[in-house]
Amino acid sequence: MNRLFALLWIALLTGCAAPPLRGTGDLGLVIERASGQVTLVDTSRREPYARIGGFGDLSHASVVYSRDGRYAYVFGRDGGLTKVDMLTARIVRRVLQSGNAIGGSISQDGRIVVAQNYTPGGIKAFDAETLELLSEVPAEYAPGSFSKVVGLADLSGNRFAYALFDGGEIWVSDFSDPRRPRTQRYPAGLQPYDGLVTPDGRYYLAGLFGEDGVALLDTWQPEQGSRRILANYGRGQEKLPVFKMPHLRGWSLAQGNAYLPAIGRHEVLVVSGSNWREVGRIKVKGQPVFVIARPDGRQVWVNYAFPDNGWVEVIDTLTGQVVRTLEPGKAILHMEFTPRGEQVWISARDDDKVLIYDTATFARIGEFTAQAPSGIFFTSRAGRTGF
Amino acid sequence: MNRLFALLWIALLTGCAAPPLRGTGDLGLVIERASGQVTLVDTSRREPYARIGGFGDLSHASVVYSRDGRYAYVFGRDGGLTKVDMLTARIVRRVLQSGNAIGGSISQDGRIVVAQNYTPGGIKAFDAETLELLSEVPAEYAPGSFSKVVGLADLSGNRFAYALFDGGEIWVSDFSDPRRPRTQRYPAGLQPYDGLVTPDGRYYLAGLFGEDGVALLDTWQPEQGSRRILANYGRGQEKLPVFKMPHLRGWSLAQGNAYLPAIGRHEVLVVSGSNWREVGRIKVKGQPVFVIARPDGRQVWVNYAFPDNGWVEVIDTLTGQVVRTLEPGKAILHMEFTPRGEQVWISARDDDKVLIYDTATFARIGEFTAQAPSGIFFTSRAGRTGF
Questions:
Q1: Is the terminal CB of chain A with fewer CB neighbours within 10 Å at N or C?
Q2: Phi, psi (rounded to 5 degrees) for B15
Q3: H/E element, B12
């Protein structure tokens, strides 16, 4: 009897020690890259609720979410792909899928997680449930020549677009049959270094490091091939000193225009989202890194490369003016909006802090300590394309 | 000892009988209006997982979600406001907030749920946690004259826009201080019968029953006042027979254009989203009711009023052509896309079925029985404006 009693007691403690039920729509994950940790956060309470270690090298780490919002897939710089349960705050699977990787994506149906790799160059597709390897596409752009892969983005129909830095091409791989991907190739230009897909999933853009201009592919009409836009976008004839090549993921579309960081200049460029011609330039305090629109498109928030990385500026898209200049902390690395845009969360790496602002009043409405925080990723990304 | 044992056993059975942990990002709710029930569904498994009764009159019922995706707020026709826990599949709160109501909305910060009422005309604000009444705005447009309220929509800054059918006005109430709302009034026209806010939360549009045209308010610049657009939109000089006034919520924005149901005609109108001028008309099989864009804007799905309510047509926005005609079942009432658009769920009231289609192949990939299903609402609405 005592034994049964003890067993029951254990069952009670373990079975019922399960975390309380909760929705996952207001959760998120902050990368703490120096320590290989992540902090899980709740945007309703505006506070962290768990911290988990064991992720390896998290520099440039990024995150995508399962379609139910329960699991985060963390892509590490060392090729680690880690599946985190946001409810139990535990790592449920982890694979070292390559030696040198940067980022990944999840298919439209949520069943396939794809990682992009530098070495060996290519992409690999994993079962989102088990992290079993399903297939890979080596980035062999010429016999025996493999390219670093950059700018991976999900498209409709379980397709993925990405760019080959060494190959100078855009590839689109269709994983409708996840074990037998089919790939189409399009010319891009010299050394594409990053890519993005527009929020509607239609246009894939690859920024070029080796020359000026941006390669564009209309993925609704790929048979028309890629074309070049923004002929002057890049480092230009003068070869300006560039402190950090801005991510293309730092571009935004708002109110029909694209807002993008000028390279090497203290400017945000405004480009028509329909014909991709420049329609304006906004002077800002530094070389922009992320130029991120609030979900409604009314505001665009901008952070900067060193030595101006303590500033954040807010552009009002209605007037095209900077309406607020903030100094949230030291080394501002990333900004993430809540899905309806009432809050923005900002990582200040060298202050070991995450700061929370009300986007209507610009008041600081919260903050907490995190070790050298970089990327911030909310579960609302699960429902969006191109994240 | 036996007593402690029994208590432990009960604790084990009850405490541990809690529903399993799960994400809420892939859940939804189907209204079964004839029986006052709702069915809870899972879009990953593509099946229902619970059915709950006790909702009263669910004709024209609509649903919004808490920001964590855990709770659904169901607005019934009889003024019932019911809070449902999507995880435990239980009703957690229910108030009868008026005698005659139609729909509601939730604030940007997720803290205030607002219901719109016919009788007595006005809106009421409730605490999203407790459903405690916080404040109300009676729709008294002239001394002693109260109007039915229609077209309630959430705006940024915890504001709500709505239209007064009898008062012929658009009102915007600011609930920044939830117990002391402040209201601005704008002229609309004769008998506004419904309203919508554009997906970016910027423009509020009110359709007019008493005259042709649509009233538009730029909520980013409300000081400019309302103006009239689409002067020919309505029943027209000929006073065509109209089988059902289409909901304005059935309008869509896709690729810079608005797609909207012509009134009394077998046409979908295409209107520029920037200057609101008509740019095209697409001939369809019946009088459109809902004209709903797939989240990427590539497709627009259309259903029809009686006697054509067995058809659904799909318009390709790239070519402006109907590319597929489906006959999903009898009395198609509503359609809801999964957040990334790979599936659409369709209610066929008179077949007592919900049908699930793959939007790329148009294949039927699932179906289940529901009693006279009408509205379908997925939790992804929690992260969006104007739902």
A1: N
A2: -60, -40
A3: helix B2-15
Structure tokens at B250: 């059935």
Q: How many CB atoms lie within 10 A of CB A231?
A: 10
Tens digits of residue pLDDT in A339-377: 999 999 999 999 999 999 999 999 999 999 999 999 999
- Whether residues A25 and B382 touch (CB distance < 8 A) is answered with yes
Q: For residue A266, give the nearest of A289, A250, A294 by alpha carbon.
A: A289
Give the whole-number percent of chain A exceeding pLDDT 90. 84
What secondary structure does DSSP assign to B79-117, as a single string? SEEEEEETTTTEEEEEEE--SEEEEEEE-TTS-EEEEEE
A109 touches chain B (CB under 8 A): yes
Q: For residue A25, what is the nearest residue in chain B, using CA coordinates?
A: B68
Write down the mean pLDDT value for chain B.
93
Tokens of B284: 């369809």
Handedness of CA A210, A212, A213, A214 (dihedral sign): positive
- How would residue A1 be classed by pLDDT, with cut points 50, 70 and 90? very low
What value, to the nearest 5°, has the Cα angle with vertex B365 and ends B363 and B367?
A: 125
The backbone torsions φ and ψ at residue A20, rounded to the nearest 5 degrees and listed phi first, read: -65, 155
Shortest CA distance from B318: residue in chain A: A220
3 state SS of A350: helix
Q: How far apart are CA A16 and CA A34, in angstroms?
A: 35
The answer for residues whose C-beta is within 8 angstroms of residue A364's C-beta and 6 or more apart is A328, A355, A356, A357, A358
Query: Is the separation of the CB atoms in A230 and A184 below 8 Å?
Result: no
Q: What is the pTM of this model?
A: 0.94
Contact predicate B317/B279, CB 8 Å: no
Give me A2's structure tokens: 């005592």
d(CA B352, CA B346): 11
CB neighbour class for A352 (10 Å; exposed up to 12, middle 13-18, buried from 19): middle
Calpha distance A63→A82 (Å, rounded): 10
| Residue A354 CB partners (closer than 8 Å, separation 6+) | A30, A39, A41, A345, A346, A347, A348, A367, A368, A370, A373, A376
Average pLDDT for A50-68: 95
Can you give the C-alpha Rg of chain A in angstroms?
21
What's the gap between Cα B90 and its chain centre? 22
Do residue B21 and residue A19 have CB atoms under 8 angstroms apart?
A: yes
**Taking the C-alpha atoms of A144, A145, A149 and A152 in order, what is their torsion angle to the nearest 10 degrees?**
-60
Q: What is the count of residue pairs from A and B with beta carbons less than 8 Å apart?
A: 182
A12 at B interface, C-beta within 8 A: yes
Helix A2-15 vs helix B2-15: angle between axes, to the nearest 10 degrees?
30
Q: Is the peptide bond before A307 cis (omega within 30 degrees of 0)?
A: yes
Burial bucket for residue A117 (CB in 10 Å: 0-12, 13-18, 19+): buried
Distance of CA A183 to the CA centre of its chain: 23
Residue A9 is given by DSSP the state: H
The pLDDT tens digits of the residues spanning A118-173 come to 988 999 999 999 999 999 999 999 999 999 999 999 999 999 999 999 999 999 99
Q: Which residue has the tokens 């979600």?
A: B65
Q: Which residue does chain A place closest to B68, by CA atoms?
A: A25
DSSP state of B250: G
- Per the DSSP assignment, residues forming a β-bridge with A159 are A155, A174
- Alpha-carbon gap, residue A188 to A169, rounded angstroms: 5
Contact B340 A16 (CB under 8 A): no
Token pair recorded at residue A270: 């405004």
CA distance A200 to chain B (A): 4
Q: pLDDT tens for residues B152-184?
A: 999 999 999 999 999 999 999 999 999 999 999
Nearest chain A residue (CA) to B361: A157
